[in-house]
What we know:
Structural class: alpha+beta
Distance between the termini: 51 Å
Shape: globular
Strand content: 5-15%
Radius of gyration: 20 Å
Number of strands: 8
Order of helices and strands: HHHHHEHEHHEHHEEEEHEH
Strand order of the largest sheet: 1-7-6-5-2-3-4-8
Number of helices: 12
Amino acid sequence: MSELSPKEIGQRLKAFRLGSKYSTEEIASKIGISRAALYRYEKGDPPKLETLESIAELFGVSLPSLMGVGVEYISSAISFFERMRQNEAESEQLSVMFGLVSYLLTTDEFDEYLEISIKEGLPEELQDDADTLRHISDIMAVLSERKKGYEQRRPSMVNLASATNLEQFLRSGFVGTFDLPEDELQKRREVARREVENVINLLEEQPIGVQIGLLVDSVPSTHFQIFRQSERSTLCLSPYKLCHFPNVRLGVGMLTSAPEALELHQSMISELWGPALKGRRAADYLRKMIEDCK
Length: 294
């Protein structure tokens, strides 16, 4: 599949539109096309180069990022998660590294408290800001679509999780701020415990196509995912955090299909997968962790 395929340009166009501050009507008006034409471009009709240049300028992204040439830089969480959704929808295998566990494997309760934690972690001046709250709602909608897409297609997954991050999650609870009463903090710790118990269940049941390894040593702080598709692979580096003290407001995500980047990150996966705890050993380790954190 060519990097410059109209279909992929359309996917990027949709992702950047979702993350922009403009409505579809405003975008079409500002670049001098109809709304119908904009939707056609998103579905894969090839736009003229000058139209792409106008769109890139309006969205504040480079033309190479919009076209998928080289490295794709994304500074909007909505756009970033939409690009992840698009890649997941065409992937045969996902390699997910670090953090707690892949967001795609979390429970419905996780989504509920993720949204709560994002909102309670906002600066005071944004707590009741309509645009900010709408932005969070849009992020949660895209995340929900990612999870639904995974449930429908079930691509195979290799997931390396960090024991250190899981322990921090248990001790702090699923929170977005330190300023919570003790009874609420205890409730959030119980939410975190149930989520770690979900990981234990996955380790013991070993659903078809899901492999989870638990890293008990220090791990890189970078979260990344590799999407393996029939004709290409894509590396995604995430600045966002979807767990305790979540961050979906600040950061620049990156996607690339550069062979060197893919090879280096795949080598890291291979190096860390061997010594990682798996199956019952990993489950027993997490059970002891839960007991130690009580």
